[in-house]
Amino acid sequence: MSQLIMELLNGIMHLGYWGVALALAIEVIPSELVLAYGGFMVSLGRLQFSLVVIAATCGMLIAQLILYWIGSFGGRPFLDKYGKYFLIHKRHLDLLSERWFQKYGAGVVFFARFVPVLRQAISIPAGIAKMPLKTFLLFTILATTVSWAILFVFLGEKLGQNWGTIHQVAAPYVDTIAAVIVGLFVIYLAVKYIRSRRLKP
After folding, report:
1. Statement: residue 200 has pLDDT above 70
2. What is the DSSP-derived secondary structure letter of residue 131?
3. Which residue among 40, 100, 158, 171 has the highest number of C-beta atoms inside a 10 angstrom radius?
């Protein structure tokens, strides 16, 4: 772990739960490290598990809402011009996010949260398509809380001083979750296909 990251993490944790939320909203440090370190703080008794999860979920939700609003109010022309400043490239919107969203519907917002490349980018086409905000919030909260917050805070707490090994320790859990999500996504696609067939004259 680099000295810079450690200094940033220590600074974040001095702010308590607000620091966790802020760190995940701007994500200067990878979210897995912030969450694992938050879990480590839980193991020391400095923070409470449930409140760290809530703060983390709020932080990640803020980040996704910003992208949603950029898509909703700025639209595609804004993103084509300024997307690079948000680390969102045209190919992400063309080849991944927009096509997935248009083809598979709102449910893809939930499933895309488990895919590294799509996890951030999917919020933008959701905004462009004017996906209902309540639905967007529901799917985003469910995915970010289950896939990231609870898992990584829990593992960070159990690892204690060894929280820095989070990537290696979390890999089997992440792979299992990914397998489950793939299975659920296949079922989701099958249901949509059957419904579309029934609607055809």
Report:
1. no
2. -
3. 40
